[in-house]
Amino acid sequence: MYDLIVKKRDGGRLSEAEIGWLIREYVKGEIPDYQMAAFLMAVYFRGLDGEETTCLTLEMADSGERVDLSSLPGVVVDKHSTGGVGDTTTLVLAPWVAASGLPVAKMSGRGLGHTGGTVDKLESIPGFRTQLDQEEFLRTVREVGVAVTGQSPNLAPADGKLYALRDVTGTVDSIPLIASSIMSKKLAGGAQAIVLDVKVGAGAFMKDLTSARALAETMVEIGRSVGRSTVAVLTSMDQPLGNAVGNALEVLEAVATLRGEGPADLAELCLELGAHMLVLGGRAEDVLEGRKILQELQRGGQALDTFKRWVAVQGGDPSFVDEGLPLAPERVEVPAPHDGVVSGLNALAVGRAAAALGAGRARKGDPVDHGVGVLLRRKVGDVVEEGEPLAELYCRGGRGLEEARRLLEEAYTIAEEAPSKPGLILEVIR
Ligand code: URA
Ligand code: CA
Predict the structure, then answer these.
(1) Which residues does ligand 1 sit against, CB inside 6 Å?
(2) Index of the ligand 1 atom closest to the CA of residue 181
(3) 385 within some domain
(4) Whether residue 302 is found in the same domain as residue 177
(5) For residue 61, is it within any domain?
(6) 190 plus 315 within the same structural domain
(7) CATH number at residue 114
(8) Does residue 66 lie within any of the structural domains?
(9) Where are the beta strands (DSSP E) in 65-178?
(10) Handedness of CA 25, 29, 32, 33 (dihedral sign)
(11) For the chain, give me the number of helices (H) and strands (E)?
């Protein structure tokens, strides 16, 4: 291990055999964390080339069980987002794409940090079970075309161990390490094709277009070299996606979007990502056709019907679709300090506000409060008058209220004139 650390520190290239050895011995506990931490820091500064990155990805994917989805009919297309604030796309896309006949078999994580992950959001539906074993997972996909389950601890365990170490050693922000981490889980999860949503902006890992493009290109190249068609869509994450940030609030927003009544930005992103999934899955010739198919499934009600059937098969009570979900009892408005136009809305600050109210978790294993969160009433480009609500906080027992209010006040920038609004979809990398 000492030799490998020094080799990478000095800018050398590791062989396939060396990377294989490193991952296997680390998972077995034969390499101590301090040596792996030094190695990760060397990678942070020296990088990994394409072959090293692919090799690391495959070794991590093979460090646990690989899910076999080959018994499902059709191409299983997975979707992954590099993480933003209030990103409700999986809840919308999984049933929507499934309604087109393309199977959706997805593993999702719990959230760490500002808001819950997809699994936490789904658990705000009474009765919904998010821990399916392999057999039930596949049976559910066969029955309703879609299943979403929590990630098994044996999915790419090398990544879990390395990510925890990176998190405390300042080595998360490395493009080859992020790319191999994400792609190893997609490969182990059995995806036959992959659509990536790479977020750019204040609320994302990648703060600028250049680094987001580099991350996207690295992941698309990994996909290509292991024979899984991969497309990356670069999307803006300066302000939160949609209006809801919080678990149950986002589930309700997903239902509204499946009905065609959701926020325009969330609906647009889901259409774009879904269309790429349909193209990779062979259901549409191109993105334009994919969008048309999805729009018809939404107008015809099949998308929402699939959502309801999916909820029921995973144990949830779909009547909430018409009756709503229990939300936190206290509602506090954050008023605009003066007249103007919203020229900025910091996604990270909104995420932190939701976390302060109890929507996220600071430590692994902490509980989340499904009913709390933030509902944005004004977003970038909207006109406001002094005293009108910018946002509404849903809270319980006053928990985190003062901090959330302060964060929301800081998150909004109100100017005299409307800003030039950058598009939501910035680039597509194939
Ligand atoms: N998400 C991941 O899964 N891994 C990373 O390294 C960063 C974000
Ligand atoms: Ca949202």
Answers:
(1) 163, 172, 177-178, 181-182
(2) 4
(3) yes
(4) yes
(5) no
(6) yes
(7) 3.40.1030.10
(8) no
(9) 77-81, 104-108, 146-150
(10) positive
(11) 17, 13
Q: Please check whether residues 347 and 385 belong to one and the same domain.
A: yes
Domain count, the chain: 3
Provide the residue range defining the domain that includes 200: 77-155+165-321
Q: Which tokens belong to 229?
A: 């068609």
Residue type, 416: E
Question: Does residue 282 share a domain with residue 260?
Answer: yes
Residue to substitute in 161, 172, 184 for testing ligand 1 pocket (most ligand atoms within 8 angstroms of CB) = 172
- Cα separation, 374 vs 377, in Å, equals 9
pLDDT in tens, the chain (430 residues): 999 999 999 999 999 999 999 999 999 999 999 999 999 999 999 999 999 999 999 999 999 999 999 999 889 999 999 877 878 999 999 999 999 999 999 998 776 666 678 999 999 999 999 999 999 999 999 999 999 999 888 999 999 999 999 989 999 999 999 999 999 999 999 999 999 999 998 778 888 999 999 999 999 999 999 999 999 999 998 899 999 999 999 999 999 999 999 999 999 999 999 999 999 999 999 999 999 999 999 999 999 999 999 999 999 999 999 999 999 999 999 999 999 999 999 999 999 999 999 998 877 778 899 999 999 999 999 999 999 999 999 999 999 999 999 999 999 999 998 888 778 999 999 9
Question: Which is the closest atom of ligand 1 to the Cα of 172?
Answer: 6
Residues in the chain: 430
Give the domain CATH number at 355. Answer: 3.90.1170.30
Single-letter code of the amino acid located at 295 = Q
Q: Kindly provide the b/e burial profile for residues 176-214, where b requires at least 16 CB atoms within 10 angstroms of the residue's own CB.
A: bbbbbbbbbbbbbbbbbbbbbbbbbbbbbbbbeeebbbe
Residue 152 annotated among the catalytic residues of the structure = no
- CATH number, domain with residue 18: 1.20.970.10
What does the alpha-carbon distance between residue 268 and residue 271 come to, in Å, rounded to a whole number?
5
Q: Are residues 241 and 298 in the same domain?
A: yes
In a domain, 409, yes or no: yes
Q: Please give the distance, rounded to the nearest whole angstrom, from the Cα atom of residue 173 to the centre of ligand 1.
A: 9
Pair 113, 245 in one domain? yes
Which protein residue's CA is at the shortest distance from atom 6 of ligand 1? 178
Residues linked to residue 245 through DSSP beta bridges, in sequence order: 374
Residues around ligand 2, an ion, CB closer than 5 A: 86, 88, 242, 244
- Nearest bound ligand to CA 198? 1
Known catalytic residue: 317? no
Same domain, 398 and 312: no
Q: List the structure tokens of 5.
A: 């650390």
338 has catalytic annotation: no
Let me know whether 106 and 238 are in one domain. yes
